[in-house]
Every structure is written in structure tokens, then in C-alpha cells.
């Protein structure tokens, strides 16, 4: 295919450099994720596999200290960046916008340093209490199914590395909001490759759950380079900017942040709690089966979501310009592609599980042993497919710096958490995934898409002369 033809295809699917690298990174994760999954199956025992994913689920508790601020930072920064530009690595443009962006950076950095410290202490203790209660051993060693799982040291190291990375999140979020996605996604693509090779080496070398620490170390090094190295002049400009105009934290950040924080907390209960309950009720081996399936489907959804999620800054700019027709054109095109990718990915995964269960040999038998059955995978896949339209709707609405999803999110995620935990406790993995499908398809997606439909009609309403109606103007001023 010629370069010109490739560019035509890229334009047809609304692909720019930022999206290309983001999708490439997600694609790499999907491809290498299969290698990682195979190494987990063949290099870890069933019990170690359960601990591996329990670590991941517990790390998700960072939402309780981070409180979703990074999403707000991206949206607020994108609105200010519409009046700014980068010249030789420094920020130039409207003095008012530059001052406001600098104030956003200062407050966000202070917040995240505090949040990172709280995270390291609180989550370390939570993990020790959780795993100690599982093992019943004062020496932090468990002996199950003839496998010794030493979790204490890797757990503490993993939490520390993740906490340090959390402290750098505000700066990378500002960069994303300031139109630097192409560079960031390009770097993260290579960072993802390096992380994969580190994880593979540690798994193949018999280091078990320490592989997660290797991955976290690579991410920390990469984020440090971006924030403190590659973009040091960018942030020096913001640090040196006098605070003549500041972001009103209470009126511009908190109203959206606290809503995202509450929703994030309930989302953790809806998506992470089920695995931890299975770990406690049915043991690490069963939790490991669920975790492997959850990881593959989450990776598929992440790759599909990146197609539209990388456009948050673009959406923010178009909204600031009130170019709603172009906003909708891009959104609907990207939404169709994103949902299609989820459909294709989940179908491929389900077919793969069918194959390994139908054809018996030492290789397929080993894989089938570490995964749930076909029925369970199919049910869970349907839940992820049903969730994708809601994800797209959520990104669109939040790009307006508003978030009307609070009540719907609390209701839907509470229902999902209750269904997955209660049915999972009684029926195991199949009960948990059935609860997820019922909650997503029957409650969450109808509510979220309905909110998107109503708010879009209100906020983008125009009169016959092309001006915003009074109702829409009032909404814009909220």
C-alpha cells in the first residue's frame, strides 16, 4: 500500500498521529497480552495466578485517593490550550489562559503529592490485612496446593512504585490536555514494548508476582522522563508564570471532580470487588481464572476505547468553539469504530476459548485449565459489548466540563456490584459474570445513553438564526 493510500485510509477512519500511536500501543498490548497470558498460564501456578490478579484489583483502590482529578485536568487544560501553543518547548499565547493553566498545574501537583503519600500507606496496609486474612500466617507466606506464594515484599514494592507514578500523573494529564497526545502516545508505545519484555523476562525467570513490579518500574521511568525530562521547559514556563489569573478550584474543578470521584469509587466496586470476593470464597485458583478472562476483555475494551478517548482534547476544543456539527460528526464516526472493535475482539477471544476446549493436547489443555469455560466467557463478553456505547456517551458528555451521570452511575454500579458479589458468592464465576451482564445491559447502558441523548439535545439546541437558545445558553453557563 502506498503512503498516499495509507493516508486516505487514515482520514477515512479519522486517524491522526495521536490516535495512531494510541491504537498501536493498545494493539501491542493486545498482541503481547496473549504472550503474557500464556506465560502466566505456563510459568505461574494456579494459586500464583490468583495472587497476580488480586494485586491488580487492589491497586485499583487508587481511585479512592486520586478521586478522578486527572480527567478534570485534561478537560480544563484542553479549554485553556485553545488560546495557547508550544514554541520551542515553551508555552506561549493568551496571558490569561497561560496564567490559568499554570495555576491548574500548581494546585494539581500539590494534590497528587498528597494523594500519592496517602495511597502508599493506606493501600499497603489494606493489602497486608487482606492477604494475611487469606493465609492466616504471621510470616506472610501461604502454602496452597504445594505452591509457596511469597507476596509480602513484592506487594509493598509494587504499591510504592505505583504511588510514585501517581505523583507524576497531574503533569502527564496536563500534557494530554495541551495537545501533546501524539508525542505522549508515541513514547508510551515504546514504553509498552519495554514493559512487555521486562514482564516476560521476570515470568520466564521464575520471579512470579514480582513481574508486576517490573512493569510498574518501567512505567515510572517513562512517566518521569516525560514530566521531568522531555517537557521540562514546558513545565518551567508554567512554574515561572505569575498567578495573575487562576482557575477557581471550587467552581471549575470540584463540581466535576467530586462527581467523577464518587462514580470512580462505585465503578471500582462494580468491576474489581467480584474478583476479590471470588479469591476469598473460592480460593486463588478460581480468582486466577476470572482474572485472566477479565484482563483479556479489559484489554480489548481499552484498545477500542482509545480510538475515541484520545479525542477528549479535540472534543473540548470543538465545544469551546461551539462547532457542534463537527463535534457530532467526529463522535458518531469514532463511536461506531469503537463499538465494532469491541465486537470483533470479544468474538475472537470467545472463539479461541471454544478451540482450546474442543481440541485436546498438552498445550490447549494447559490453557483451558487456567481459563473459565466457554459459557462463562461468552456471558462476560456480552457484558463488555453492552458497556461500550455507555463508555462513548460518557466521554462525549464529560468533554463539556459537566457530569450529569452521578445518580445514574451510583445506581447502576451499585446494582452491578450487588449482582456480581451476591451471584458470585452463590454460583461462582458464572454467577458473577451473569450479574455483570444483567447490570450493564439492563441498567447502566440504558441510563447512560439516555442521559447523553437528553443533554446533547439541551446543550446544543439552536434557534432558527443559528444562535443558542436561552435554555442551552443557561446550560453553557453552569
From TrEMBL:
Subcellular location: Cell membrane
Annotated protein name in UniProt: Membrane protein involved in the export of O-antigen and teichoic acid
Membrane topology classification: Multi-pass membrane protein
Keywords attached to this entry: Cell membrane, Membrane, Transmembrane, Transmembrane helix
Family as reported in the entry's similarity comment: Belongs to the polysaccharide synthase family.
Organism in which the protein naturally occurs: Fuerstiella marisgermanici
GO cellular component, one term: plasma membrane
Main location: membrane
InterPro entries tied to this protein: Poly_Biosynth_Transport
Bilayer-spanning residue ranges: 21-42, 54-77, 111-132, 152-175, 291-310, 331-357, 377-397, 404-430, 436-454
Superkingdom assignment: Bacteria
Keyword Glycoprotein assigned: no
Amino acid at each position: 500500500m502506498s503512503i498516499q493510500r495509507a493516508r486516505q485510509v487514515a482520514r477515512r477512519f479519522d486517524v491522526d498521529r495521536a490516535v495512531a500511536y494510541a491504537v498501536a500501543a493498545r494493539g501491542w498490548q493486545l498482541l503481547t497480552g496473549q504472550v503474557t497470558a500464556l506465560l502466566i498460564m505456563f510459568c505461574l501456578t494456579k494459586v500464583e495466578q490468583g495472587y497476580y490478579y488480586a494485586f491488580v484489583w487492589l491497586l485499583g483502590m487508587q481511585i479512592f485517593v486520586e478521586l478522578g482529578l486527572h480527567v478534570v485536568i485534561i478537560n480544563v487544560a484542553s479549554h485553556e490550550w485553545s488560546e495557547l501553543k508550544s514554541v520551542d518547548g515553551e508555552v506561549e499565547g493568551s496571558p490569561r489562559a497561560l496564567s490559568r493553566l499554570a495555576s491548574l498545574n500548581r494546585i494539581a501537583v500539590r494534590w497528587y503529592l498528597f494523594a500519592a503519600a496517602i495511597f502508599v500507606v493506606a493501600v499497603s496496609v489494606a493489602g497486608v490485612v487482606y492477604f494475611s486474612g487469606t493465609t492466616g500466617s504471621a510470616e506472610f507466606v501461604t502454602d496452597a496446593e504445594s505452591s509457596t506464594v511469597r507476596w509480602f515484599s513484592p506487594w509493598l514494592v509494587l504499591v510504592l512504585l505505583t504511588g510514585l507514578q501517581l505523583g507524576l500523573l497531574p503533569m502527564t494529564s496536563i500534557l494530554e490536555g495541551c495537545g501533546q497526545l501524539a508525542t505522549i502516545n508515541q513514547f508510551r508505545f515504546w514504553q509498552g514494548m519495554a514493559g512487555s519484555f521486562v514482564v516476560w523476562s521476570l515470568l520466564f525467570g521464575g520471579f512470579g508476582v514480582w513481574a508486576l513490579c517490573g512493569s510498574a518500574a518501567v512505567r515510572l521511568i517513562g512517566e518521569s522522563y516525560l514530566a521531568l525530562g522531555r517537557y521540562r521547559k514546558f513545565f518551567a514556563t508554567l512554574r515561572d508564570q505569575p498567578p495573575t489569573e487562576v482557575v477557581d478550584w471550587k467552581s471549575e474543578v470540584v463540581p466535576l471532580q467530586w462527581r467523577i470521584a464518587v462514580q470512580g469509587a462505585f465503578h471500582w466496586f462494580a468491576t474489581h470487588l467480584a474478583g476479590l470476593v471470588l479469591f476469598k470464597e473460592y480460593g486463588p485458583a478460581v480468582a486466577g481464572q476470572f482474572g485472566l478472562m477479565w484482563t483479556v476483555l479489559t484489554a480489548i475494551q481499552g484498545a477500542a476505547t482509545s480510538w475515541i478517548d484520545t479525542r477528549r482534547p479535540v472534543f473540548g476544543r470543538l465545544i469551546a468553539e461551539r462547532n457542534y456539527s463537527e463535534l457530532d460528526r467526529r463522535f458518531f464516526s469514532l463511536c461506531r469504530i469503537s463499538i465494532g472493535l469491541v465486537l470483533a475482539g470479544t468474538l475472537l477471544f470467545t472463539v479461541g476459548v471454544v478451540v482450546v476446549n474442543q481440541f485436546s493436547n498438552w498445550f490447549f489443555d494447559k490453557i483451558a485449565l487456567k481459563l473459565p469455560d466457554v459459557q462463562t466467557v461468552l456471558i462476560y463478553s456480552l457484558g463488555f459489548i453492552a458497556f461500550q456505547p455507555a463508555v462513548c456517551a460518557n466521554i462525549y458528555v464529560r468533554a463539556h466540563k459537566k457530569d450529569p451521570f452521578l445518580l445514574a452511575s451510583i445506581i447502576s454500579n451499585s446494582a452491578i456490584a450487588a449482582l456480581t458479589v451476591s451471584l458470585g458468592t452463590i454460583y461462582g464465576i458464572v454467577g458473577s459474570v451473569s450479574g455483570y451482564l444483567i447490570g450493564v445491559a439492563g441498567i447502566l447502558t440504558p441510563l447512560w445513553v439516555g442521559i447523553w441523548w437528553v443533554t446533547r439535545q439541551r446543550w446544543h439546541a439552536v434557534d432558527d438564526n443559528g444562535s443558542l437558545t436561552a435554555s442551552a445558553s443557561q446550560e453553557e453557563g453552569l
